[in-house]
Specification:
heterodimer; A: 309 residues; alpha/beta; TIM Barrel; twelve-stranded mixed sheet; B: 323 residues; eight-stranded parallel beta barrel; 10 helices; globular
Chain lengths: 309, 323
């Protein structure tokens, strides 16, 4: 790994082919919410193999994610996806489910395991247990503050991956309510959830992706990157599983430039960066739980960016 | 014989649950369980609850199932030292690190993986068993077929929630509530209460039950979207669960009034006893039980609906910032 890693998420081969990943260092392949998502990498092993090769051919690291809440009936497919990832030379697998972590540990002992945000790492003791199961990196539960995260990293001796931009996961279900209504609309499953669907009430908004609930606002840590790097964090994610290739490219370019500047001790952010972020923000910006506050709040100088969209 | 596990949000409810026929009772340690502090017990009350339960021949478990902070683990172990010394029969927990530490310190204490652990497959069960858990609460979304497969494959005990909420999202994997409002407060003992985060021991504002409108970008696509979140009572599946050999039927409801909880416990006690006592070849008629349950359901729904309105209103209130 270079001085830092900036990664992103892509759900299927079509989106991967359309994406310019020149600003990224690594990619997580697969959609963690729904087996029916259009040509989900995790259900199409030929696509997954090609996807891993495409990513690696660009000199990037290829990671394969796995489902957030796999029931027994999904485990055989998870098993096949893990086998495919190993055979195709994936650099790591991401696990959100502790049963799947156990599968990776027992059956693929050479495979690096990244623990995902749905695995509920809240404590250093928890991270230590998962480290014993082969975890080499973890995304803390999304409710964790930066202060708590530092205690986990320090206590467990395992690096954290931080989402720095994009819709933040708020929940996962076994049920897609969109299916109840799709007969009213021209788009149907499996592409319906890729529309810009928002659940709104008053000033509340959440992005709906069917079985997944995401923040309406985009989590944005752009002006806090120097502090994150000062704290020793080096792995950053732009969450874009339901975003367009343009979003993936332009947001990644903004963050790569800002991270390189932060690394050089320059914490400034170009106005053009904020303009790019505004163009790709439907509801506003937030900081999630990083500052120990309500997840939809924004803390920083660019408060207008949080509410003006 | 299947165990009937009852909730208790105060000492009066502990007594009522004993008198109503529970085999075991669980209470939450104040600041450390998945309910607001009004329905949790102080350490001294946990001590008294153990005495009341054991005098009635009933087991007493303590829920310490918040997703806590790293810095709180020593305090948890200190608390558990007291509870174990007082004779609690088990602990209900979520955080894997806390489970591992408690198991190392108290290897003979029976540990139950909480509903918040969101155990959804057999590999999950095996994982939790490997860190010291001997009984797991099944996620409310699992089917009887999935539960049956556990009995075949695993020797870990299963607890089934027979009165609880079935949220839109998986329990333990939802942050909708604190995304809309999170208030950090500390109790008199310095415990952070995370008001708004059910996973961290604060109350859940139930924002999923808001009357949502669905927009495609800025265009209204569908008004009045209801995300499914139902409170349920098991009835039709109770005979099958008993036949399946599940270890424990668990009732949630520490937040309800004592008489209502007592009535629910008594209802299930009598139902289980009647089913177990009937000759094997005789059919079991659930019709009279269904009628009794309707009255309980009406009272529960009325109270739950009122509470939801209060919580949604509170969720709209600004958070006083101290920072």
């Amino acid at each position: 790994m270079g001085a830092f890693e900036l990664n992103t998420t892509i759900s299927n081969l079509r989106s991967l082919r359309e994406s310019d990943l020149s600003a990224c260092d690594a990619v997580y392949l697969g959609n963690i919410y729904c087996r029916l998502f259009e040509d989900n990498f995790l259900e199409r092993m030929d696509d997954l193999t090609e996807g891993i090769a495409r990513v690696k051919d660009q000199g990037l690291r290829a990671y394969v994610t796995s489902y957030a809440a796999p029931r027994n009936d999904a485990l055989p497919k998870v098993q096949i996806a893990l086998e495919t990832a190993a055979a195709a030379g994936a650099d790591a697998v991401e696990v959100h489910n502790l049963g799947v972590l156990r599968m990776v540990h027992e059956q693929f002992p050479g495979m690096a395991a990244h623990v995902g945000g749905f695995a509920n790492v809240y404590t250093d003791a928890g991270a230590e247990v998962l480290k014993e199961y082969g975890a080499v990196r973890f995304t803390p539960n999304y409710e964790i503050s930066l202060e708590e995260m530092e205690a986990i990293v320090r206590g467990a001796g395992i690096p954290a991956e931080l989402q720095v931009h994009g819709k933040m996961p708020l929940g996962v279900s076994d049920y897609c309510f969109l299916l109840e209504y799709e007969q009213h609309w021209p788009e149907k499953c499996p592409v319906l959830c890729q529309k810009q669907l928002f659940l709104k009430q008053g000033d509340w908004a959440m992005r709906s992706v069917g079985k997944g609930v995401l923040s309406g606002k985009d989590l944005c840590m752009l002006e806090h990157l120097p502090a994150l790097m000062d704290a020793g964090h080096r792995v950053f994610r732009i969450e874009a599983a339901y975003e367009t290739p343009a979003y993936r490219l332009q947001i990644a370019q903004v963050y790569r430039a800002a991270l390189e500047r932060a690394l050089a001790g320059d914490g400034t952010v170009d106005e053009s960066a904020w303009q790019a972020i505004r163009e790709h923000t439907a509801v506003g910006l937030c900081n999630g739980f990083y500052f120990g506050r309500t997840g939809s709040e924004y803390v920083g100088k660019r408060v207008e960016a949080a509410t003006a969209c | 014989m299947v165990e009937l596990l009852a909730p208790a949000g105060n000492l009066e409810m502990v007594k009522a649950a004993v008198e109503s026929g529970a085999n075991a009772i669980y209470v939450g340690a104040r600041g450390w369980s998945r309910r607001r502090d009004a329905f949790e017990l102080s350490d001294e009350q946990v001590h008294d609850a153990v005495g009341i339960a054991h005098a009635g021949g009933v087991k007493l478990r303590v829920a310490v199932n918040t997703n806590m902070q790293s810095c709180e683990l020593p305090a948890l172990l200190e608390k558990m030292e007291k509870f174990v010394g007082w004779g609690v029969d088990g602990a209900i927990m979520t955080d894997v690190g806390a489970i591992a530490q408690v198991h190392r310190r108290f290897p003979h204490l029976v540990l139950h993986a909480s509903i918040g652990a969101n155990i959804v497959n057999n590999q999950d069960v095996a994982f939790y068993r490997s860190i010291g858990v001997s009984q797991v609460v099944a996620d409310t979304k699992l089917t009887l077929r999935e539960l049956a497969s556990r009995q075949v494959d695993l020797d870990t005990g299963i607890e089934i929630l027979i009165h609880a909420n079935n949220c839109y999202t998986y329990l333990g994997k939802c942050w909708m509530s604190p995304y809309h409002r999170l208030e950090r407060t500390t109790d008199n003992f310095g415990k952070d209460l995370f008001r708004g985060s059910p996973n961290r021991g604060g109350l859940d504002y139930r924002v999923c039950l808001e009357d949502w409108d669905l927009f495609d970008g800025k265009a209204l696509l569908e008004p009045h979207i209801a995300l499914k979140n139902d409170a349920f009572f098991y009835l039709d599946d109770i005979p099958a669960l008993i036949e399946l050999g599940v270890h424990c039927l668990k009732i949630q409801g520490r937040e309800y009034p004592v008489p209502l909880v007592a009535s629910i416990v008594r209802f299930y006690r009598e139902l289980i006893d009647a089913y177990v006592a009937k000759p094997a070849e005789q059919a079991f008629d659930l019709t009279p039980w269904r009628l009794r349950l309707e009255a309980l359901r009406a009272e529960r729904d009325s109270r739950r609906g009122n509470m939801t309105l209060v919580l949604l209103n509170e969720a709209r209130q600004p958070v006083p910032h101290t920072a």
